[in-house]
Amino acid sequence: MLVSLTPSLSGIFEELPIRESQVITLLxxxxxxxTFSSKMLYKYDMGMPSLHKALSSLIRKDLISKxxxxxxxxxxxxxxxxxxxVLKSGGELKY
Length: 95
What we know:
Layout: H1 2-14, H2 18-30, H3 38-43, H4 48-60, E1 64-66, E2 72-74, H5 77-88
Helix pairs in contact: 1-5, 2-4, 2-5
């Protein structure tokens, strides 16, 4: 199923600005997340202001949401799974 969706999912991901694609990758790898550790952000040389800007933008684009438990998560399960599969297979995501 994911293979047939790859062109669409890849297109969504590749159109995102770099910080947004990095944040959505973090959510796919570790999500749902309420708090992003400094270790997570260090991987992408990202500070809190950049994180909050990317989260707000991803929410506006309806790609992520913040649950009642205050945890951020990717709305589209196929997108989240596709990101995990690309990473697991050793593929590269274009930032």
